[in-house]
């Protein structure tokens, strides 16, 4: 069962979601839905201190992905994450 919802999304958020959709070859709607699903179902990892987040990642990620995640999280925090980097961050966070 599903429900149709009409949302007004800020331009910047829509742009970033479209970039992720393009980079991952997915539908825009699926990217938005996945983001909403993660926000509702998963714990708020952004509220975790960096050392706790990295410890959580250590248990499941390769060292290369851990390094990439750390770098991307810094860029995200600084507000300088590009569309491709945002897509890569989404992929790493989904692992």
From TrEMBL:
It comes from the Bacteria. This is Ribbon-helix-helix protein CopG domain-containing protein. It comes from Aquisphaera giovannonii.
């Amino acid at each position: 069962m599903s429900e149709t919802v009409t949302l007004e999304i800020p331009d910047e958020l829509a742009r970033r979601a479209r970039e992720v959709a393009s980079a991952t070859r997915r539908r825009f709607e699926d990217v938005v839905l996945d983001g909403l699903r993660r926000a509702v179902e998963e714990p708020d990892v952004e509220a975790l201190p960096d050392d706790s987040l990295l410890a959580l990642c250590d248990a499941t990620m390769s060292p290369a992905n851990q390094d990439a995640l750390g770098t991307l999280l810094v860029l995200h925090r600084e507000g300088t994450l590009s569309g491709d980097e945002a897509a890569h961050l989404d992929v790493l966070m989904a692992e």
